[in-house]
Specification:
341 residues, Alpha-Beta Plaits, 2 domains, two-stranded antiparallel ribbon, 12% strand
Length: 341
């Protein structure tokens, strides 16, 4: 692993560095910060094993690197003026190199301490089943909720539906505005899903992973799930998301989401709920143009809903509403011109 000091620092000249040279000494602010954090985690990661209470928790290196890396970049950027001032005080290039070495050592130590605190926080959150960033239940809770639905189906033949949401072009948000802006979008998405959609207490909304969220809807057929999904699409698209860009300026951006829907069926031999997740994932891939739809067409249709590999139209939603006065109560026995899903 390359040290944050390697290949960086002032060139061997006799004059002290100028302020505009400081970032170039670092080799780029992000690269400098990432190397500091990488050095810190190499020190911290083996030592975490000395604390048995922190083991067996599912926290991985990449998760920790991302969390600490963002925090360190912000901290170094805030202190850039001070770092410049310290280097400018050097009477020679050699003294500047020594100062730069000390700065690196200090930041590695700070990164290691931040890593320890972040690790403990992640451990505690995972133990109670909460995603630290969004405050939503995490995959641990999701897995339990899926199995609860499977067990209810075995006892009473009660069906449930699964909805997966994937934020469209989320990588572009991170690349354009920074990871902190991306985190703001994820938090706001979580808030809208949990507060704005009139979910029942028995419905489970979770952070599924990355920019994906999921809903488990007990006693709800796929038609009812599609009605709810349409409502969520409208709420997400009805007003912009407010974020801070890389310079800290508040801006508004539009966010869309693609939604895959599936209904659990015991007839498909799905004892652990994996098949219903696969079906919803496949429908999501249809929207993203990665899988063919029912007609064999591959096309990018982000920002829509798909169920059983078929894109759901507004007309479909209106028909479902007529079929289901209450989207939770099951289908009413009336003829309807609804395209089969």
């Amino acid at each position: 692993m390359k040290s944050p000091r390697e290949g960086r620092g002032p060139e061997p000249k006799e004059s002290a560095p100028k302020s505009q040279e400081v970032v170039s000494f670092m080799g780029g602010l992000k690269e400098f910060s990432d190397d500091l954090v990488a050095e810190a985690i190499e020190k911290f990661w083996p030592n975490r094993l000395k604390h048995p209470e922190l083991n067996g928790n599912g926290v991985n290196k990449d998760e920790l690197l991302e969390k600490v890396g963002v925090a360190m970049r912000v901290q170094i950027a805030k202190n850039l003026t001070r770092i410049t001032s310290l280097l400018k005080r050097a009477s020679s290039r050699k003294e500047a190199e020594d100062i730069f070495e000390d700065i690196c050592a200090i930041y590695v130590s700070e990164a290691e301490e931040l890593m320890r605190l972040s690790y403990e926080s992640l451990v505690n959150m995972k133990k109670i089943g909460i995603d630290e960033l969004t405050g939503l239940p995490n995959r641990k809770v999701f897995d339990r909720s899926i199995m609860d639905g499977v067990e209810r189906n075995k006892r009473s033949n009660e069906t449930f539906s699964f909805i997966i949401f994937d934020l469209d072009h989320f990588k572009k948000v991170n690349d354009t505005y920074g990871h902190q802006a991306g985190d703001e979008v994820l938090r706001e998405m979580a808030r809208r899903l949990s507060q704005d959609t009139q979910l029942r207490r028995l419905d489970a909304v979770v952070r599924y992973g990355g920019e994906e969220f999921a809903l488990i809807l007990p006693d709800t057929p796929k038609e009812g799930a599609c009605i709810l999904a349409q409502r969520i699409l409208e709420q997400i698209g009805s007003r912009p998301f407010t974020i801070a860009d890389k310079e800290g300026k508040s801006i508004e951006i539009s966010v869309t989401t693609s939604i895959g829907v599936a209904q659990y069926s015991s007839a498909t031999k799905d004892p652990d709920g994996k098949e219903v997740q696969r079906k919803a994932d496949t429908s999501l891939y249809v929207l993203k143009g990665k899988e063919p739809d029912k007609e064999g067409v591959i096309k990018d249709r982000r920002g829509q809903i798909a169920c059983n590999n078929r894109v759901i139209t507004v007309a479909d939603i209106e028909n479902y509403k007529e079929m289901m006065p209450d989207r939770r109560s099951g289908l009413t026995p009336r003829p309807a011109n609804v395209t089969p899903m």
